[in-house]
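Sample intake sheet
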Amino acid sequence: MLGKFEEMKLLALCMATDNRDAFSRLSVAYQDGLRRFILNLTGGDASLTDDLAQETFLKAWLGIRSFKGLSGFKTWLYRIAVNEFISHRRKKGIDSSTTCDIADINVTEHSNCHAATEARLDVNEILRHLSDAERIVTLLFYLEDQPIKKICQITSMPEGTVKSHLKRARDNMARFINNN
């Protein structure tokens, strides 16, 4: 993780001189978290994660001079990733607002030796059945440990909307757990 001063220095080098080494250092610092976030957004699709992460970093490099510093670089990068994910879903004709009834998801009994793997699969299954907006804010809040204000910056949603999506996602996940 980069310190604030080092991040600012690297950003200044990128903006002023198109320094690829500086951008590479920024990318390396944030790629693991960003890829984890995208992997969860895509429901574990590694190939799509690679494509979206690559597109995110490419757009960040090409648009680095438009970065105004009103938020942190990480927030800006996650915003680009969210836009890429939503854009991909639109291109594929996937309605981002649709969800299925969580209570209809069939979960089978599992043995103790596979419990951890099954639990991860159950979480991925639950996330897959949330709307895109619910999934995005849930992952940012619980997995990426982002505060509501940062989530608002990343998603361009008002605070009340972020809180509503979190509440609906929690209710859907609780309903799934209680029904199984």
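Comment: Residues 99-121 have pLDDT under 50 and may be disordered. Helices lie at 4-17, 20-41, 46-62, 73-91, 115-128, 132-143, 148-155, 159-178.
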